[in-house]
UniProtKB/TrEMBL annotation:
UniProt keyword Transport, yes or no: yes
Designated gene of the protein: MEP2
Record protein name field: Ammonium transporter
Native source species: Komagataella pastoris
An example molecular function term from Gene Ontology annotations: ammonium channel activity
Compartments it resides in: Cell membrane; Membrane
């Protein structure tokens, strides 16, 4: 329990918020707000399999399962990191301008005190924000598609969330963060989630090197998606989950939440159409399904920093501009010669940058005021310096993410048992067969499917002797009228 003097009502504004044996910690919060933020967190979790399905569909068949594996692995690793010290490093109370602290290490005292979003308790806010960290990790590891060693990837992800994601999230969303105090606006994660994951994925792809392909001697390889169906399913999960991602970022069940949801949906739709039409004129008059899905995601990314700040009709501009520019941004990997196979930088890095800059232009004070939030607005409120704040946030996020990720990767790759990349033979065979031993489509590899078996243990010889003795007993008749119980196939007496 916190030692601070309690409020007259018996509640605390920090620590656990009060003694749950003496007071009802729930009465300080509106239950509708808590329900909506909790539901939004569950919606955001659906984005984890959404990213996995999207990446799996875009990958080659022999690597498809590894991308699904990576998304679920990221959920597990980041969940533990967020519990261990992630939440404390981002939202620790009385923190510095750069990073939180360890006051909430292992979620110590995280319970019923008002959180950074003071409409909900700490424990609920921790759950909601943990989903954002998970999604960011899932997106970032896409830069390593089809050639990263999976064990070292887990170690790298834990470290990356700690030294890259946590500082940027603290700058942006902690009330003491330097970007928050500067006045930069980021409603739901254009910087900490999208630009951060995009720049991190670009660094991961750069230092791993391009994928091995005997048919591609020069330049960056380019492959068709092995399953457009998976791409579509992943996009549907992401689009649906984004309503919680943006709609829940108000921290309350106000009209501003629903306003953000409408803007989110509109930006996704116009982004899909924008990319679709650009693809039609750029690539042989085809209405590409994959292009439409990528366009929807680019629109969703762009509206993320703006959904609770900008008038709803500007969502059309966010979708159209992001869909078109992100389409052309896909070509950057060929110019930079960096094999970003999932186009994480083009969609999330560039899309997040576009959205953040346009937020500086179109943020309106009356939209934020729908739940009582006060801002100076952007250019439409004649607050012209806001664009400078947005550009400062973009530059700081991209540079920190790319630079620190590069340092972290180079350090880890020099540790013998944490080498970042698969061997060339493993890569050619495919990550699924070489490392996982399972496949997305079992019928194609029925003879090669790995079936887990228990490893021999020090007790195995004893069990074997007991088994032999048991068999010998069953073959001899019982003596002196003694009755032997029969055994089932599981080895237990019937």
């Amino acid at each position: 329990m916190s030692e601070e003097t309690p409020l007259p009502s018996g509640y605390y504004d920090s620590g656990t918020g009060g003694n749950s044996l003496e007071v009802d910690l729930n009465v300080r919060f509106d239950k509708a707000d808590m329900v909506w933020v909790a539901v939004s967190g569950c919606l955001v979790f659906l984005m984890v399999p959404g990213v996995g399905l999207l990446y799996s569909g875009l990958a080659r068949k022999k690597h498809a399962l590894s991308l699904l594996w990576a998304s679920l692995m990221a959920a597990g690793v980041v969940s533990f990191q967020w519990f261990f010290w992630g939440y404390s490093l981002v939202f620790g109370r009385d923190s510095s301008n750069f990073l939180g602290n360890m006051k909430n290490f292992c979620l110590m005292d995280v319970l019923g005190a008002p959180s950074t979003a003071d409409t909900v308790p700490d424990i609920l806010f921790c759950f909601f924000q943990g989903m954002f960290a998970m999604v960011t990790g899932c997106l970032m590891v896409g830069g390593a598609c089809e050639r990263a060693a999976l064990g070292p990837m887990m170690v790298f992800l834990f470290c990356w969330v700690t030294v890259v994601y946590c500082p940027i999230a603290a700058w942006t969303w902690n009330a003491n963060g330097w970007l928050a105090e500067l006045g930069a606006l980021d409603f739901a994660g254009g910087g900490p989630v999208h630009m951060n994951s995009g720049a991190g994925a670009l660094a991961y792809a750069l230092w791993l090197g391009k994928r091995k392909d005997p048919a591609v001697a020069k330049g960056v390889p380019k492959y068709k998606p092995h399953s457009v169906t998976s791409v579509v399913l992943g996009t549907v999960f992401l689009w649906f989950g984004w309503f919680g991602f943006n709609g829940g970022s108000t921290g309350n069940a106000s009209m501003r939440s629903w306003y953000a949801c409408v803007s989110t949906n509109l930006a996704a739709g116009t982004g899909a159409l924008s990319w679709l039409f650009v693809d039609y004129f750029r690539f042989g008059r085809k209405w590409t399904t994959t292009g439409m899905c990528c366009g929807a995601i680019s629109g969703l990314v762009a509206i993320t920093p703006a959904a609770g700040y900008t008038p709803v009709y500007f969502a059309v501009a966010f979708g159209v501009v992001a869909g078109a520019l992100c389409n052309f941004a896909v070509e950057l990997k060929f110019l930079m010669r960096i094999d970003d196979g999932m186009d994480v930088f083009a969609l999330h890095g560039v899309g997040g940058f576009i959205g953040s800059v346009m937020t500086g232009l179109f943020a309106a004070d009356y939209v934020a005021a729908l739940d009582g939030t006060e801002i100076d607005g952007g250019w439409i409120n004649q607050h012209y310096v806001q664009l400078g704040y947005q550009l400062a946030a973009c530059c700081a996020t991209l540079l920190w993410s790319f630079g620190i990720t590069s340092i972290l990767l180079n350090i880890q790759d020099r540790i013998p048992f944490l080498k970042l990349r698969l061997s060339e033979d493993q890569e050619i065979i495919g990550t699924d067969a070489a490392v996982i031993g399972e496949f997305t489509y079992a019928d194609d590899h029925q003879d090669n499917m790995f079936i887990p078996q228990p490893e021999p243990t020090p007790l195995s010889p004893i069990k074997s002797i007991r088994s032999v003795l048991g068999n010998n007993k069953s073959q001899n008749p019982p003596a002196n009228g003694e009755t032997l119980g029969s055994e089932t196939s599981s080895g237990k007496p019937e």
